[in-house]
Amino acid sequence: MRVVTCKLERWIQMAALLSLATCCSGAAMAQPDIGPLEISVVEPAQESATGGDLNRATEGGVSGVVNPTEPLAKGVDESNAPSLFLKAAEAYEEGNYQSAAVSYRILVDAGFGTADVHYNLANALLRSGELGRAIGAYRRAQILRPRDQDVRANLSFARDSTKDDVAPPAPPSWSRTLFFWHHALSFEETVKLLLVVLALFWTVVAVLALRLAWRPKALAGGLLIIALALLASVGYRWRSPQRIAVVLPSQTDVFSGTDLQSRVIFNLHAGTELEVATSGAAWTQFRMPDGQRGWLPTEHLEIVDSASL
Q1: Which of 9, 36, 55, 307 has the highest CB neighbour count under 10 A?
Q2: Residue 191's pLDDT is what?
Q3: 3-state secondary structure the chain
Q4: Most confident of 25-39, 112-126, 286-300
Q5: What whole-number distance in Å separates Cα of residue 247 and Cα of residue 306?
Q6: Are 124 and 100 in contact (CB under 8 A)?
């Protein structure tokens, strides 16, 4: 066996750093799982006006939506989460949408957060007339499962019910085209794909180190480039999470400052989505698509933070 070249050593060092960063990312995204719930329920589909499935089986839970459910969530664990989901699904099928939403929210606050429960919660909220919270839940489902057509269809349907002519915050078209993998994959999918690419890279490095008949140096270089692109996506999501605010009241005043005595700039209505500039316990500043900024009481907003999912 020949000695590994300096170039190969540099590849190994770079891959080791990538592997270490990926392991850290994987640990950061770890979530509790409801286990049996993944296989225990298959709900009959109901069609929305857009054709999206209005209630479906879940793999896990949701992210916190309404604080009053937090005390109830303390008693939820892997043993009783499936029965709570069944209760929510039954309530939805019976037309008790508010009851279904409360049960889904308890699952959310208990820490069982996946795309399907966000989706089911959004449908229950939309049926209950809570447009702003429904859009917030749909956006959470979309962050976790960005290519889901049902989520996209029902989110579009909910947006059609809003009054304000304000475009939802979205990345520019050039970014969606140039960095397609970043927008098409969820954080979890990106980390898993990165692990696969690194595993393939280490296999190729082993082949090179053993000096076997073929020399896949180009393949190793290509895999390393893909791994770097995926790692950049993971790092960007980690360091710069997306924060969107959704208006909750049917109508609310937008202020020029953090005081109810401040000048009222204009009004916004339920369901309008805004880019968060800064947010605190009492007040949140947002940016409009034209760059204009304003302040709203934080209690009037549903904050969707991708870092919390």
Answers
A1: 55
A2: 85
A3: CCCCCHHHHHHHHHHHHHHHHHHHHHHHCCCCCCCCHHHHCCCCCCECCCCCECCCCCCCCCCCCCHHHHHHHCCCCCCCHHHHHHHHHHHHHCCCHHHHHHHHHHHHHCCCCCHHHHHHHHHHHHHCCCHHHHHHHHHHHHHHCCCCHHHHHHHHHHHCCCCCCCCCCCCCHHHHHHCHHHHHCCHHHHHHHHHHHHHHHHHHHHHHHHCCCCCCHHHHHHHHHHHHHHHHHHHHHHHCCCEEEEECCCEEEEECCCCCCCCEEEEEECCCEEEEEEECCCEEEEECCCCCEEEEEHHHEEEEEHHHC
A4: 286-300
A5: 17
A6: yes
Asked if residue 11 has pLDDT above 90, the reply is no
Check residue 69 and give its pLDDT: 62
**By C-alpha distance, which of 142, 140, 129, 139 is closest to 101?**
129
Reported as half-sphere exposure (CB side, CA atoms, 13 A), residue 308 has a value of 17
Provide the β-strand partners of residue 247: 301
**β-bridge pairing 243-247 and 283-287:** unpaired
Tokens standing for residue 206 = 């082993």
Query: How many Cα atoms are found within 13 Å in the side-chain-facing hemisphere of 250?
Result: 1
CA distance 58 to 81: 11
Alpha-carbon 116 to chain mean position: 11
In angstroms, the CA 49 to CA 271 distance is 18
Q: How confident is the model at residue 74 (pLDDT cuts 50, 70, 90)?
A: low
Nearest Cα to Cα of residue 268 among 282, 288, 283: 288
Q: What confidence tier does 109 reach under pLDDT thresholds 50, 70, 90?
A: confident
- Burial, 123: exposed, middle or buried (Cβ in 10 Å; 0-12, 13-18, 19+)? buried
